[in-house]
Specification:
Elements (H helix, E strand, L loop, with lengths): L2 E4 L15 E11 L9 E12 H15 L6 E4 H10 L6
Parallel strand pairs: 1-4
Antiparallel strand pairs: 2-3
């Protein structure tokens, strides 16, 4: 499932329109060690890769999903709901 977290950078000035507002594009990588003495250890990195208008970001995400054979629409999250999802850690077992 693809997730698009939508939180634009603040406009440089008041004349900047929503169409030209640029969004930061991040790549996230994770690694979970399954075997050995470090079993259960997580490594994560989040890197700002680029900035672009939202329409361009959406077009890239849709292209990646199409090439990956995904049929689902990407889930849209606001910046606040994305931060809340990280706090809740739904991927951990309790």
């Amino acid at each position: 499932m693809a997730v698009i977290a939508v939180e634009p950078e603040p406009p440089a000035d008041a004349t900047e329109s929503a169409a030209t507002t640029r969004h930061v594009v991040y790549s996230a990588r994770y690694r979970l060690v399954l075997k050995g003495p470090e079993r259960g250890r997580w490594e994560t990195t989040v890197t700002a890769e680029a900035d672009a208008p939202l329409a361009a970001v959406e077009a890239v995400v849709r292209g990646v999903l199409r090439r990956a054979g995904e049929d689902e629409e990407p889930e849209r999250l606001t910046g606040e709901s994305f931060r809340q999802a990280l706090v809740e850690e739904p991927w951990t077992s309790r």
